[in-house]
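Weekend entry, working from home. Most of the wet-lab plans are on hold until the incubator is repaired, so I used the time to fold the two sequences that have been sitting in the queue since the last round of cloning. Logging both here for the record. First:
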Amino acid sequence: MQDNRVLVTGGAGFIGSNLANALAADNDVIVVDDLFLGTEENLIDAVDFRERSVLEDGLPTDVDVLFHLAALSSMQMHEEDPQRGARVNVEGFVNAVEQFVQDGGDTVVYATTSSIYGDRTEPSPESMPVKARTGYEASKLARERYAEYYDNYYDDLTVAGLRYFSVYQGMAGGAEGHKGEFANIIAQFADDIANGESPVIYGDGTQTRDFTHVEDIVNATIRAAEADLSGVYNAGTETQYSFNTVVELLNDELGTEVEPEYVGNPIPDDVYVHDTLADASRIREATGWVPSVSFTEGIERVCAPYTE
């Protein structure tokens, strides 16, 4: 993508800042973020940062492309304040898109979630039935339904939702440091182990995730905009690794022998996602997107700041 004026909401957060910084190389990039979870320090100087809420009027939506990543991005955040979660994740999406359309915009790409698939040891296609088991998932499904409406109602508008799978980068040298307990478990475990602390694992560590490096997520998001996609698309690697394997690989890369601490899972079984696995064939066929960062390379990147 080149020579476009773009808006990234939630652009001071983990994924949003990586996206904004990448786009800024060849585009004029505006970021809107209320800094509830993000930090301006994640952004390079070329990005035009505005401390604003997506619930406000007068957003800078006179742009070519809207990347809507603003969200309360975890189950815990929603349980603590369900009303705020619904306002930000649903009303905030509607508000941003409405203003964007009024300003003549025609390309929207937004973040949804892969957790709506529930436990999956088989690949999860976009066509399979999904359901909301938490307020967070309900808000993201509501966002998808509104996107369907917008795509149907406005003839010239394309609206693509990406169901991201377990995105990571790292605490040190990455944009996850500010997230603390909300960072990906790879980032948290690496930081614990590098500092000689035992990473805490819920259960026996056999749970798995389709871990996807943020560089690949950014690439998929940009490609969705370039291709003017509509509908929902998975963004994942189509491979799974257990939490136990993550600890093993981190120890190998860091040259440590830190054992994890296994504790009872405080999250109820009926809402805890034990396993995730993407079927990324739809976005691959639509855009040619293929993840480029292998899991081994990703682990090396996460650990590099601790070993250099």
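Second, folded right after the first finished:
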Amino acid sequence: MNDQTNKKPEISRKIRPLRKKATKEEKPDQQKPAAVKDKSTKTEAPKKKSPKKPEPEKKVTAQQQGLTRLNKYIAAAGICSRREADELIKKGKVKVNGKIVTEMGVKVVESDKVRVEGHEIKPEEYVYLLLNKPKNTITTTSDERDRDTVMDLVKNATDARVFPVGRLDRNTTGLLILTNDGELANRLMHPSYKVRKVYQVETNDVMTDEQLTQLRNGVELEDGPARAYKIERHPVQKKKFRMSIIEGRNHQVKRMVSAVGSEVTSLKRIVYAGLTDKGLNQGRWRHLTRKEIFELRQLVKLLDKKSLKL
């Protein structure tokens, strides 16, 4: 019995050191999670540099700033192409806010005043339509009596707000320009630019040679004298003839014919400022070509390739 009791303390001594070792071995294991936490904290630290992300937003494009290259600005005004605008700039024909610009790549904003050969220009998206107006259509932008207007015929042509250049009577058919280019429209209507208009006229009787001669020489109307600059009889239909005028007074052709003792029964404008109704049926419209626009501007002495020697 005494031997057994004496051995027990020895066993406990042997076990105790083992327990201590196990405790020591467990301590590093307990510290590892802390070490992992430290490492994970270090890897997540760079993510805090988020303020650098908005950098791309700071890059504002020229378009966002409202900046436009000068050559594009000039071309948008309908004067010429960008390449031709570059030539104008090189030749010193362009001023921005009163200063001559010859350097390529200059940008301007909408508020800048740009002049080419002394003419101030604006980069507007101009629209030019040619309409073959039918009968029973009013030449106006709106009608209180809800009658058909020329605007109804071109409503699907453009989103721009265009308006008719001049007017044709309700039952007069033929060519009519509609545009948002106010300067061109005003000059086309002004008598000093002598814009030619050709009408096909039909009367209630056959006009005599004497009556046609009177129209060529001029007749007296309520608002002053008026004359036809050219008259041609229709080769087949004797009651029809073509008459060319350069003025645009109200009911001018009808009043002139009435002044020589006859009456107009049908009136159609077949030529306006060099534009014809060829291939354009009544009630139909088309966009003017770039060439036609340049020719119109040249006709009324606006900026064009010829005047700029391009």
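Plan for Monday: verify the second prediction. The domain at 196-272 is CATH 3.30.2350.10 (Pseudouridine synthase).
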